[in-house]
Every structure is written in C-alpha cells, then in structure tokens.
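User: Thanks for the earlier help. One more: Glycosyl transferase, family 39. Can you show the sequence and predicted structure together?

Assistant: Of course, both are below.
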Amino acid sequence: MKKLIAQLERHHILVFIILFITFLFRFPSLFEPYWYGDEGIFAAVAKNLTQGGVLYQTAWDNKPPMIYLTYAGIFSLFGVSMFWLRLVVAVVVMTTATVIYEIGRETIGKHRALVASFIFGFFTSLRIIEGNLALTEIFMILPISCAMYLALKGKFDNYSLFFAGALFAIASLYKQVGAFEALALGIYIFLIRDKFSDFFKKGLVLILGFSIPFAVTFAYFLKHGIVNEFIFGAYTYYSIYLGESPKYAELINISKFLPAIAVILYGFYKKFKAVKVNYIHLFLLWIAFSFMGAYFSGRTYGHYLVQVTPGVSLLLASISLAKVRINIARFVFSCLFLIPLLFLTSLIFRDFISGGPINQIKWWGNFIDFATGNKSETEYNNYFDGNVNTIMALTDALKVNSAYGESIYIWGDLPWLYAIVDGKNPSRYVTSFHVFGVPSEIGRLEVARDLNAKSPKYIVKPQGSIGYFAELENLLIRKYTHIAKINEADLYILR
C-alpha cells in the first residue's frame, strides 16, 4: 500500500479529493424519497422491461431507449431503491469528472484540469440545475465527455473518431440533443485540417461510428415490428415540445443558434487569417452546441443546463490571468457568443437561477433536520412533493392487500408506485398526461380497450388526475369496488 501511495503523484491525490468532495456535494440526494415525476416514469417503464415487456410496445414514454435500459439495469442489480439509483448517478458524475480532468490534462495542463474537474463536480451537484436527479442529461454527458477525450487522446485518428462517434450516438440515445456535440467535434476537425479530403475521411469515420448504435437499435425494434412506435416515441413526439415554447418563442428560436454560428464564423476567420485554431475553440464549440441543446425546446427545466457543464467547466478553468489582446474580431465574436447565452439563460431558466442559492440551502437544511431527528419523515417528504406521502401510503395499503406483483392501473401521476410494488400495468401508458398527450383520442381509446380486455386487479385514482376519462369511470362502476381513500387517492379492487 505504501509503495502504491508513493507512486501516486500529488495531482492524483488531489483528483481523489475532488471526487470525494463531489460525492459530499451529492450526499443528501441518496436519501431523497420517490418524488420526481420523470424519474418515476423512467422507473415504471424500466420495471415493465424487467418483467419481460418491450419498450414502446408494452411501456411507453417519449424518450430514446437508453434511460429506460439504464434504470432497468440498476433495478435488476439492486432492486427498486432510490439510494442505489442515486448512488449510481453519483458514480457516473464522479467518472465524468475524472474524464473532464483527463481532457484538461490533454489540453490545458494538469493544474487547470483539476480546477475544471472541481467546477464540473460542483455544478452538476447543484439543485439549481437539478443535478441531483437521475435524468437523461446526467447520464448523457458521460459518453459525450468520453467521446471528446478519445478524439483528443487519439489525436483525431480513425480509431478514436470511430469510437467517439459511437459514444455520441449512445449519448443521443439518452436524449436526442446529445448528437449536437458530435457536430461540434466535426466542425473543429474541419477547422484544424488543411485538406478538405482529410476532413471528409475523418467525417465519414465519425459518422460510421455514430451509425452503429443506431443500426443496432433499429434492428431490435424492426425485429419486434415497432419501428414506427420507436420513431414516434423517441423523436416525432419531441416536436410537441417545440410548440410549447414560452413567451418570445420566435426570439428564442433565432437566438439559440447565434452562439454556434458565432463560433463557426470566428473559426473560419482564424483559418482564413492562418491563425492556429487551438483547443479553446473546441471548448467554445462544445459550449455553443450544448447550450443549443439546452435551449432547443424552449422549455424551462433546470436539468437541461446539465448538458452544458462539461464544456463550461473546461473553459472556465482555461481562462488565463494574462492580458488578452482585444481586436475587433474578438470583440464582435464575444458579443455574438456571450450576449445570446446570457439573455436566453436568464429568460428561459429565470426561476431556477433566482431561487437557486436559497433552494440549495433549504435542501441541505431539510436533510440535516431529518437526519438529526428535527423533522418527521412526513415533513421531510413534503419538502419535495405532496405526492410522496400518498405514494408511500398507497404502497403500505397495497402491501396489506397482498397486491405486490399484481396487475394495477393508476389514472394519475404516481408512476413511482408501479416500480415500488412491482405492479403490472395492463396499459403501456404510466401517467394520465401521456394518455392525453398522444394525438387525438388514440390514448384514451387504447387504454379503454386494454382495461376492458385485461382488467387489472387494482385501480388507483388520485385526486390530481389529468382530465376526465369517461370510459374509466364506467369501468369502475361496472367492475370495481371502492375499498379505501388514501391521502386523497381512491383505491379500487376488481369485483
């Protein structure tokens, strides 16, 4: 052991310290209850997969497949547990922080690499951007960072670009906009290559690597005859988000492209002037395209900003204290790059930014009060969401009624319950807003058909259900008996 420690360089020890601090930043998240809706949806769909279901066919959500496969893998190894889910996320974040450090070593030196790793660990652990949650973005940035590292380490040779392309594809199979960073790398390669033919070959290799995971994915869904369902769920449905942009939607849609255009044009300017395009330009491209991904739908969810943390951390760590000569080109570029980023971030994510520091302090305070016995579990749960205690009470009621592993349908927004009680949903939709979210009346007609054909043993109907479902009400009257009202949720059993 002493020999091993002696072989470790000082900066390796500092990396371990940074990773430990990152873990401490995230520590309270390990003890959060089952509260966040998107996590619950992922969990419900993943649970269906562990029961032998087929994604988009027996369990549906509007994301690409990787997040559900990840949850299913975690549940298969550790069971349905928020502690283990968030611990895996912490490991993913610390692994990504290590990759960020390695990218920094390759580009800006080991000292600044340490700073980049620390900044990344800090940012991705903030509740301001919902970095404590097990969502698509937090998993997506690991393959993106690995792709960038492989390309840099391999000096953009064919092997490194092929595997980088595959990793970018995996990232985009977590969330569609994960492909944007592949464009950033491709543009950077173009800017540093003298011959177009050389860039063309490199680009083909990157595209080939990118296509392999998608080919495998399409082959799987083709085998099950549900390619159209996959495309609709993972991609076509996303267009609905684009129509839900907040006020000033047109301005947002124009402004989100400006930083990327500015970096590209500045790169062409440097190339034309025979000025070396260095790694800082790659960070700028990375940031511009990741912010484009964060702004793409125009929706105001803090976790969208997780995507930008790797590039921002590296750029902040690379800022030099030395004087930088300002010229007209740099000034124009800075304005076109920074002003849209500042404007859009403050506009779209205003609520998260304004309440962020207070939110973080309250989050820690809630955890400390609970850990020291100054808060009851009920009070602790209510801090996160009012539905948590309803979910736990329903869990107890279903356990008392020996309902674990039985068929159950929930008309509402309590998807975590499916995973916790190992419930078998006769419908592929795990929340009521999905039923109303799909086009026309397809969702309601499908659910009504499924419930009549495979009537579940239990039906849960929370007070907060979205919309009136006449077919369900008729089914309850004809076939079910009301057995309990639990925290404003009605529990029915098949007669």
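User: Great, one quick takeaway?

Assistant: Residues 103 and 149 are 5 Å apart (CA to CA).
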